[in-house]
């Protein structure tokens, strides 16, 4: 059974303090390296904190920005792949909620821009327009961000594009903890694909973030469940495993019947 070792960093960033958050990232990578992880995943907008909308002119970066450059160096130093989320300044000055996949050579292999914006995110951010599957030596990785998990079409699209597993970076808050707990397991089960979902903790204004980061295998079995624990946890996640041949959801699809889904 082919597997990779995944570290999940369920932590609390400090809003607007990149240096503090970079230190958290560095410390987490040291711990993940000690656990011999291949990949470490951080929550949504971890570089800056979540409620950064009013300060995007100052806080947003490109992939060549100061904060992202420091994270690339950390990936090289610790020999890790990392999925890190940040407010991205786009080519025409618009802003995106983005997650970058950085390899152990410090190269950005791809950036996913959140396609389904939640609530007040729509005031400050532009939605992305592309689903991303990124091929790496540790597997083909599909990327999603938070609210995306509530739309089954995205995970199915990533599966059909050949993803070996899905990484979801989260800033999910109460009272929506049950939504993501259930949806992430269902996305894994209905697509027969492993799912990593990394959420944060802490409070920003009237938002209280609910944790419950998990690593889930292709049958929906929870391999790692952090609930409200603070810290970095590591687990072996199979990306090739025995599946029930009677299910084979992808093979049993009736795509010719689904065209109306894209028209409404």
TrEMBL record:
Keywords: Hydrolase. Residues 4-239 form the CN hydrolase domain. Pfam families: CN_hydrolase. SUPFAM superfamilies: Carbon-nitrogen hydrolase. The keyword Ligase does not apply. GO terms for molecular function: hydrolase activity. This is Carbon-nitrogen hydrolase. It comes from the Bacteria.
């Amino acid at each position: 059974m082919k597997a990779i070792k995944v570290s999940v960093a369920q932590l609390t960033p400090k809003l607007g303090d990149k240096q503090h958050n970079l230190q958290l990232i560095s410390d987490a990578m040291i711990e993940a390296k000690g656990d011999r992880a291949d990949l470490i995943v951080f929550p949504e907008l971890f570089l800056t904190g979540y409620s950064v909308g009013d300060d995007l002119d100052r806080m947003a970066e490109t992939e060549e920005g100061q904060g992202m450059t420091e994270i690339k160096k950390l990936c090289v130093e610790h020999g890790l792949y990392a999925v890190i989320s940040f407010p991205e300044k786009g080519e025409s000055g618009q802003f995106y909620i983005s997650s970058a996949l950085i390899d152990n050579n410090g190269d950005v292999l791809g950036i996913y821009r959140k396609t389904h914006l939640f609530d007040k995110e729509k005031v400050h951010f532009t939605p992305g327009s592309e689903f991303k599957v990124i091929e790496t030596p540790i597997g083909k990785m599909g990327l999603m961000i938070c609210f995306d998990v509530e739309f089954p079409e995205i995970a199915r699209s990533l599966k059909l594009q050949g993803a070996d597993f899905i990484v979801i970076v989260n800033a999910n808050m109460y009272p929506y903890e049950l939504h993501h707990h259930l949806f992430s397991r269902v996305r894994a089960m209905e697509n027969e694909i492993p799912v990593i979902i990394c959420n944060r903790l802490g409070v920003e204004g009237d938002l209280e973030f609910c944790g419950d980061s998990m690593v889930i295998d292709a049958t929906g079995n929870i391999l790692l469940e952090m609930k409200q624990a603070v810290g970095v946890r590591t687990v072996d996640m199979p990306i090739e495993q025995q599946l029930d041949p009677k299910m084979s959801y992808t093979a049993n699809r009736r795509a010719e019947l689904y065209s109306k889904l894209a028209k409404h």
